Amino acid sequence: MGDPNLLEVLTEEGEHADKHIDYSFQMSEQSLSSRETSFLINEETMPAKRFNLFLRRRLMFQKNQQSKDSIFFRDGIRQIDFVLSYADDIKKDAELKAERRKEFEKNLRKTGLELEIEDKRDSEDGRTYFVKIHAPWEVLVTYAEVLGIKMPIKESDIPRPTHTPMSYVLGPVRLPTSVKYPHPEYFTAQFSRHRQELFLIEDQATFFPSSSRNRIVYYILSRCPFGIEDGKKRFGIERLLNSNTYSSAYPLHDGQYWKPSEPPNPTNERYILHQNWARFSYFYKEQPLDLIKNYYGEKIGIYFVFLGFYTEMLSFAAVVGLACFIYGLLSMEDNTSSTEICDPEIGGQMIMCPLCDQVCDYWRLNSTCLASKFSHLFDNESTVFFAIFMGIWVTLFLEFWKQRQARLEYEWDLVDFEEEQQQLQLRPEFEAMCKHRKLNPVTKEMEPYMPLYARIPWYFLSGATVTLWMSLVVTSMVAVIVYRLSVFATFASFMESDASLKQVKSFLTPQITTSLTGSCLNFIVILILNFFYEKISAWITKMEIPRTYQEYESSLTLKMFLFQFVNFYSSCFYVAFFKGKFVGYPGKYTYLFDEWRSEECDPGGCLIELTTQLTIIMTGKQVFGNIKEAIYPLALNWWRRRKARTNSEKLYSRWEQDHDLESFGPLGLFYEYLETVIQFGFVTLFVASFPLAPLLALINNIVEIRVDAWKLTTQYRRTVASKAHSIGVWQDILYGMAVLSVATNAFIVAFTSDIIPRLVYYYAYSTNATQPMTGYVNNSLSVFLIADFPNHTAPSEKRGFITCRYRDYRYPPDDENKYFHNMQFWHVLAAKMTFIIVMEHVVFLVKFLLAWMIPDVPKDVVERIKREKLMTIKILHDFELNKLKENLGINSNEFAKHVMIEENKAQLAKSTI
């Protein structure tokens, strides 16, 4: 007949079902709003006979007949919507946890949920209990109305767009229609349990999709009380998870990802997603966005829509950036500046001043020959064009994303979705910590309230923590600068010595070598600081006790973005805008902490060092991130399964398989967005120095999409579905970075690149009509009299040189304005400032014109929205009239007359208004 323990559990359920259940229990005071309480189920909706029928079926059920992929209760009828797990605890608070679980599960049954418990002796590890939860129809219809879930009322007559430009070219990237559009489009309305006849309910078991079911159950779990402690009512599954009363809470996957489901299980959408989305061989295919939304919910779905759209737009920037790089590659040998530097008769005869005090020797300019050629790849005429292009590209990207988002809101039925619905949902942790209550002006209900004075200390601590860690980032950057200054002399001593005065052409100059090692060290420091700050920022945000989940995420977003902005970009800002700008000149150098001489740029400028820094940090972050995302959950899951599979003769059930997977967590999507936004900063803020940045980002994102898809379908538990109609605060951050990128790229071209000085020489100072750039290198280097070196800065080894050269525009030692800036310096500075002003105004003008010309919502979407609203109102109107006719029981003529009178009244009222 079955397990005696099972019989005992089921008997308790049967006895419980025969009792009169008071559904309006005290939970309504704090856990449920008055609206939810009014929908609580009465005893007539769940007769005891139904429980007795299930009881008889379950007692006859043999466990060994159950499939390990089953997602149903033991009766094979009721679908598992959620699973809780816990293990025996031998610690001193074991009794308290057991009491909490007992009270919690009792209250879950009072809300109408049905529970079935799997004993630990039937689990693979022999120590884990599983509580399976099923939401019956009465619960689903009640909370679907509470949550305002929209359900289909009629199949849409608006055809999907079938023709797209160049569809024959894009054919290979298209998915089958059955995968891209797994369900027909419907006109929808907010579900009402009193209007069930209005909705297309063919089968109650499948009417609500599994994503809506687990969303409803989680809503109940997050507000269900489990007792009173310290005079406060405690409730919510999150608090129970934090106290280890339950070890996990999760909805089930549809089945195995490597094979389709077998009857009676429903269609295995997880398998379809894996086959058409998570395989790396499908990297060139479009994403099954509707299927992602149906399975994981709108919030995760819209992330993949954004990532896919961003990747598509990157392809255009990548092509243009690659073209600029190829132009630099083809023009490398014809570059007059590199030719002069490499020429033994020009660059080989120019003796440069030492790059550090005493231990550094003089060196010949042609020792930087290969470095100057490599610098030309990224510092050429196309740099200006690409900087302006990216300023326009980022505007097009954001404007077209607005349109894509508007189209998505229509397609996913989110037009009427308002973020306020999410804001009104208080965090259980906030409710538990509040001692005060006040009237909510929106809901007109008494809600928990925390006065400002109680939060101020935590706000101060939060601000101080963020400031401290940002200061730590700046300190670490200064430490890396000191490292470069300290080791530069070491590199210079054995790389330059006598060889430096010979006509050599080495790529590994002391500057480049120090820059490479410094960039690698800086990247390691970035990863270490980032690891610790993630933990601290999450803890600090929790201590602030945010009111809603949206406030929590916004607060964490601000902290994490500010820190990562400083952490990842500070070194790039230093190289781009500070390095080499305040060096001074021989005999009067600027010193850091009165000890280390400020870093100088290469004679070709600092752009090559900025490119090196950007390449190492951007590439390293992307490679490290993808490896971490793939290897980390894979290793943890392997180890967890290895420990769990101790009883191979036991049924390794669907809930146990999912239990052994890694949890995606409430902040999993937050870190995905953060990673993408930081990459967006690399692509836009410093792209003038590295035209290949969009290409690297494109390659990374193609891999990122499939890595994220693979880990979600194979390595992570299924997430609780949640709604969202936009990417939220990240959109504001993207707009801010887009505006900042125009300024940063303008300054990079003006002050970091060598373009402006070359243009000034070309138009104002060149004396060669046939080859205007001839003599530019000699013109850009000033002369210094070696006898003017102070004793503490002159090289220890004496040479027979009279003068040496350095990069600047200053008068020579034989002029009366000795070592002061000459007129060409001011001409170049004026040209730089003019370029910045002109470029910013041109780009911003184009940005504003594009933003004005491109509508936020496409015209066809506006028409579709109007059509759907009209049809929905008409369907609801017809339904109400038919219902009224049935209730009145009058004939057609009387009914038509009655309707005409009511419509005339309505028209009169409308005209009066």
Mean pLDDT, all residues: 82
Q: Within the largest sheet, what's the order of strands?
A: 2-3-1-8
How many DSSP-defined strands? 18
Major β-sheet profile:
4 strands, antiparallel
Number of helices: 30
Domain Anoctamin dimerisation: 72-289
Main location: membrane
Keywords: Cell membrane, Glycoprotein, Membrane, Transmembrane, Transmembrane helix
Membrane topology: Multi-pass membrane protein
What keyword list fits this structure?
single chain, 913 residues, alpha+beta, four-stranded antiparallel β-sheet, two-stranded antiparallel ribbon, 30 helices, 18 strands, elongated, disordered N terminus, chloride channel activity, cell membrane
Structure description:
Helices cover 55% and strands 8% of the residues. With 913 residues, it is α+β, with helices and mostly antiparallel strands. Among the domains are: 4-149 and 191-252, no CATH class; 286-336 and 353-428 and 463-757, no CATH class. Strand 11 and strand 12 (446-449) form a beta hairpin. The chain is elongated, with a radius of gyration of 35 Å. The relative contact order is 0.10.
